[in-house]
Write a structure and sequence with these properties.
The structure holds two protein chains of two kinds.
Chain A (H helix, E strand, L loop, with lengths): L2 H8 L8 E10 L2 E11 L4 E5 L6 H8 L7 E6 L2 E2 L5 H7 L1 E3 L12 H9 L2 H6 L11 H11 L18 H14 L4 E5 L7 H16 L3 E5 L3 H7 L2 E6 L2 E6 L1 H6 L1 H8 L4 H7 L1
Parallel strand pairs in A: 3-8, 3-9, 6-7, 7-8
Antiparallel strand pairs in A: 1-2, 1-4, 4-5, 9-10
Chain B lengths: L6 E7 L1 H7 L7 H24 L3 H27 L6 H18 L4 H20 L7 H22 L8 E2 L7 H22 L3 H11 L1 H6 L4 H27 L1 E2 L7 H13 L5 H16 L7 H15 L4 H10 E7 L1
Antiparallel strand pairs in B: 1-4, 2-3
Classes of the chains: A alpha/beta, B mainly alpha.
Chain lengths: 274, 338
């Protein structure tokens, strides 16, 4: 029916991208948050999305995961159109996300936070991470997952109420919640922000390990140095439009990216006006 | 220079509480009885209530208290475990009551059949009607759910259906007053312990997750509306059960079953008893309903006394009796220097 659909089918023969975002636009009233953004994510890679504040990074995530309705454009997951699906259906297919503002279940202990995703239909169907969805005792598996993600098993940390955990643990908990579903794509919305250098240092190997396990990651970040260490490819957004795309060196060498981040005026000119 | 040492109150779990939490509880009579005592007091106390009451009048008060307790239980479950503050208690009672009345008078079913049937079917009807409001949260859901009982009552009045303002009369009562009382008390106890168990199962965890964070539930691939509907079904079934019992007690079903008392009193009981404990609201009803009966002699002045009691509770024990009691039972306090 739609031409995009056909091209999606055609690519079946070659190396088909796991996720294809096609000319997605989103307007909040008069503000064009996204303007015809298109990109592809290949299976098993880590795609970094960067851009100044308000450039539409989180809006991209919200559009892909269905949390907001896009104005126009299509999104394909393994050739299937997921543009109009509700968020829980998209998550059920294996595209999960973390939230920039952490959203744990505050009143529950950390490990009970993972029992909930392990109870979801997807985890029951696929078995969930480490088979936790199929087992009778989800509590045990959730503590295993927490240990894997960096909670000290023998401490009281996994049993603490989520509202008492510090940011570092909450960010991990967000990631663990995604992981419990045994996802195909994890979209990380600023998992490094708000963390100390040592916390990031322990998070980076974790991300790399997830990639080795075959999970595709899309990472939205402001911490560029750490992002460039893990990401295979970088996409730059500015004012809701895709500025450029490529390896980290290519992107950083791009004059337009510098302009987007630092403005076009030279320091002397700014000082003159002041 | 005055006394600069500051002190704070420290709360520490009693040793017996800590031991009773672990496997140790199975090996010792002391820990076992520590765990069982509060439950036994509740069960034995509830079962003994009809025997202790001085006469028919007070036995009737106990049955009505149990019906309010069912509503309070359903309110507490929805508000503290699913995050839906429902003022639809009167709606549940009304729907359950009219369902039982119709089943009894039209189909000739006995009360022992109409009560469970009216609860299950009525719960379904309530859930279907509340389905459009489920995306709402907190106080917004409260406002809309308050509209339902008012709406149905006016509808019956205006259209003169279901007996109109006269209501449906000629409904069978329970076989005798002992059957009536114990039927309701046993149902209340079963539902109370059942709901307490439910909220700690995995499904219960998901429901609590819906309250804490419905976005994260969505991101975990679960349909929030489905779980909310499930919770509303459970709560409205409990409410309808109360309504069905009420109709058989009064042998009459009318639009006064949509009265706001059924929506408001359970909330007051939850405040007094301690929200989120599930037992607390039942205790709250056991206090509030008899008090309201005792104050009946004062005529309209009883509202004043009633309000004073409520205000006193909110000021001095805002956490609720049950939470206070639990703390005293499980922890001891001491002053430590800081």
């Amino acid at each position: 029916m739609k031409p995009d659909m056909k091209s999606g089918m055609k690519q079946d023969t070659g190396k088909e991208p796991i996720l294809r975002v096609d000319k997605v636009s989103k307007a909040f009233g008069g503000i064009q948050a996204l303007n015809g953004v298109s990109f592809e994510v290949n299976e098993g890679e880590i795609l970094g999305i960067i851009g100044p504040n308000g450039s539409g990074k989180t809006t991209v995530v919200n559009c892909i995961t269905g949390f907001i309705k896009k104005t126009s454009g299509r999104i394909f997951f393994r050739g299937t159109d997921i543009s109009d699906k509700p968020p829980h259906k998209i998550a059920d297919m294996g595209i999960t996300r973390t939230f920039q503002i952490m959203r744990p279940y505050y009143t529950l202990p950390a490990y009970k936070n993972l029992v909930i995703p392990l109870f979801s239909p997807r985890a029951k169907r696929t078995g969930g991470w480490r088979g936790g969805g199929k087992l009778g005792d989800r509590n045990t598996v959730s503590i295993d997952i927490l240990e894997e993600i960096g909670f000290e098993r023998d401490s009281y940390v996994p049993y603490k109420t989520a509202s008492t955990l510090p940011t570092g643990y909450l960010k991990r908990l967000e990631l663990a919640r995604c992981l419990a579903l045994k996802p195909e794509i994890i979209i990380c919305d600023e998992v490094f922000s708000g963390l100390s250098m040592s916390e990031i240092a322990s998070m980076v190997p974790l991300i790399e390990r997830l990639q080795m396990e075959g999970i595709t990651l899309i990472m939205i970040e402001h911490r560029l140095r750490e992002l460039f260490r893990v990401a295979n490819r970088i996409m730059v957004l500015n004012f809701g439009e895709k500025l450029t795309e490529g390896s980290s060196e290519e992107v950083m060498a791009d004059e337009r990216v510098k302009t987007a981040y630092f403005g076009s005026q030279k320091v002397e000119e700014v000082m003159k006006h002041a | 220079m005055g006394n600069n040492t500051q002190r704070r109150k420290e709360r520490i779990d009693r040793g017996i509480k800590v031991r009773a939490d672990s496997l140790y509880a199975l090996m010792s009579i002391r820990e076992l009885s520590y765990l069982a005592l509060p439950r036994l007091i509740l069960i034995v106390g509830m079962l003994a209530l009809p025997l202790l009451m001085p006469g028919m009048y007070w036995q009737r008060v106990i049955t009505i208290t149990c019906i309010y307790s069912l509503l309070a239980l359903s309110f507490d479950f929805l508000a503290h475990y699913v995050g839906l503050v429902s003022l639809g208690g009167a709606f549940f009672v009304g729907v359950g009551g009219y369902m039982a009345a119709i089943m009894n008078t039209e189909l000739g079913l006995p009360p022992l059949l109409t009560v469970p049937l009216a609860a299950l079917v009525g719960g379904g009807i309530c859930t279907l009607l509340l389905l459009p409001c489920l995306p709402l949260r907190g106080v917004y859901f409260a406002i809309v759910s308050l509209m339902y009982p008012l709406f149905v009552a006016r509808l019956i009045e205006a259209l003169d259906v279901l007996g109109g303002t006269d209501g449906i009369t000629g409904i069978d009562s329970f076989t005798n007053r002992w059957a009536e009382q114990y039927f309701i008390i046993v149902i209340l106890l079963l539902l109370l312990f059942g709901v307490r168990r439910l909220v700690n199962t995995d499904i219960g965890l998901v429901l609590r997750g819906v309250k804490d964070n419905d976005q994260a539930i969505r991101a975990s691939g679960m349909n929030v509306t489905l779980y909310k509907a499930m919770a509303v079904y459970i709560a409205s079934t409990i409410g309808c059960l109360g309504g069905a019992c009420l109709v058989h007690i009064y042998m009459w079903s009318g639009i006064s079953q949509f009265a706001l008392d059924f929506s408001i009193l359970p909330i007051a009981a939850t405040v007094i008893g301690g929200g989120g404990t599930l037992v607390g609201p039942v205790l709250g009803c056991l206090i509030l309903v008899p008090i309201s009966e005792l104050l009946r002699d004062f005529g309209t002045l009883r509202i004043v006394f009633y309000a004073l009691i409520l205000v006193a509770f909110i000021i001095f024990r805002s956490e609720g009796i049950m939470i206070y009691g639990q703390r005293k039972y499980q922890q001891f306090e001491r002053w430590t220097r800081i």
